[in-house]
Design goal:
By secondary structure, the protein is mostly helical. The relative contact order is 0.06. The chain binds one RNA strand of 10 nucleotides through helix 1, helix 3, helix 5, helix 7 and helix 9.
Length: about 230
RNA sequence: CAGCUAUGUA
């Protein structure tokens, strides 16, 4: 069973969901009974092949086998529905889940953001904290993106402080999301400060800053900044 | 101590 699951997960990772699902079928044909890890890998395969119907079939099997209440599995199911824009389905699963972990909340928040429900995303972010579930760096990226798209600098700054409190600013994805958000909201100064405070080898934050300048019509600043950074490379 | 779910920009 572990070998089959490894094959399914491996192909799903490569974006070869159809191959992965083929292995899933073969495994069932051998009379093997999937466990939670196998189901999650199968769901991931459904995402990469963009097949809602296969995912729904797996959902039925998951209920049959009683894995529905396992947060690890439920999170993956939620993600499937979120990616299809079926937020109601995702919410139903979330609401019936008794053990909501960080990932459950993050999938929900990210689902709201990706589908344009920005206020709901931030509301869920607050609710998550009321329920004493700690956000992680992935949660922060989604929350920051919600602030940026919503145009809410106050919330954005508040979340920035929380990011610092939890030490997530060292994550390149988080710091570049911060820079991006400030740039989008029209705070080039804050964007630059964030950049200067979190220098790293990762180029994404630099790119975010330059693109931000350009989007704000600050082409000269963008150019000067690139020149300045280029000097350090000599 | 086998297989393991969620994140941005372009």
């Amino acid at each position: 069973l572990v070998s089959w699951t490894a094959m399914i997960a491996g192909y799903a990772d490569l974006g070869q969901g159809n191959v992965a699902l083929g292995f899933f079928e073969q495994m069932l044909a051998k009379g093997l009974c999937p466990d939670s890890v196998t189901f999650v890998s199968g769901l991931k395969a459904c995402c990469s092949v963009a097949s809602l119907s296969h995912g729904q079939a797996l959902h039925m099997d998951i209920i049959q086998e009683g894995f529905e209440g396992v947060s690890y599995v439920a999170n993956s199911l939620m993600d499937l529905y979120v990616k299809w824009g079926h937020l109601q389905e995702a919410c139903d699963i979330f609401n019936e889940l008794s053990n909501r972990d960080t990932i459950s909340w993050t999938v929900l928040i990210n689902g709201y953001v990706n589908n344009g429900f920005l206020e709901e995303a931030l509301l869920s972010y607050n609710q998550m904290q009321s329920n004493d579930v700690s956000p992680n760096s992935v949660t922060m990226v989604s929350a920051l993106r919600a602030c940026g798209s919503l145009g809410d600098p106050n919330k954005g700054h508040q979340i920035h402080l929380e990011v610092i409190m939890d030490g997530f600013e060292t994550d390149p994805l988080v710091s570049s999301s911060l820079v991006e958000m400030y740039a989008k909201l029209g705070f080039p100064k804050e964007a630059e400060d964030t950049y200067l405070e979190n220098q790293s080898e990762d180029p994404s934050m630099f790119n975010a800053l330059v693109l931000g300048y350009i989007e704000q019509g600050l082409e000269k600043e963008a150019f000067d900044f690139v020149k300045l950074e280029a000097k350090y490379l000599d």
